[in-house]
Amino acid sequence: MKARILGITCVTFLFAAAAGAQTKISGTAQCGKPETVGKADAGDRAGHTMELGKGSCTWTTPLEMAGLKSKDGNSVSFVGATSTRSSGTGTFVGNMDNGDKFFVSFHDSTTIKNGQPAGPSKGTWSYTGGTGELKGLQGKGTYTVTVNADRTSTVAVEGDYTIAEPTPKEAKQKPPSQ
């Protein structure tokens, strides 16, 4: 019994330490009208469609990570929709002000009414990596997408991140700063 309590206590401290090492972030992006790459009826029921789309966004309130600010980015997403619900999954590649990149996997859903979103889409995201100063980037969070009548949108993002320290081998391979 004492070993179990000690184990639970250790796990609790580990989670607390991991949470303390994370940095909170938030930002807002303005996205243009998405481009439909392809769309097809699923064929299983009326109104069920599948769509592949691309889009681009500019950060009006940038994310700030490792002393850098997000500038813009592009996404590719797959959306399945019925007459009452839409859900999407995709990848976003973001550009920082120094040229470094960050990579995000995202998933969202929204209610559809009369062929239009009945409110904002809500979703979750997670970092899948980064380049340069963002190498070793990890983190996750939530976002809300508000679609305008012209199909442009505003995306509000919040979450947290960490950047893993390079291994000794990676540190040796890193070129010296100039």
Write structural notes for this entry.
With 178 residues, the protein is mainly β. The protein is elongated. It has one domain: AOC barrel-like. The chain is 14% helix and 58% strand. A hairpin with a 2-residue loop joins strand 7 (101-113) and strand 8 (116-117). The model is unreliable at 1-20 (pLDDT under 50).
What would CATH call the class? Answer: Mainly Beta
Tell me the strand order in the biggest sheet.
1-3-5-6-7-9-10-11
Number of strands: 11
How far the N terminus sits from the C terminus, by CA atoms, comes to: 57 Å
Domain module count: 1
Structural class, please? mainly beta
Helical percentage: 10-25%
Tell me which oligomeric state these chains represent: single chain
Low-confidence stretches: 1-20
Gyration radius, rounded: 20 Å
Number of helices: 2
Index terms:
mainly beta; AOC barrel-like; 8-stranded antiparallel barrel; 2 helices; about 15% helix
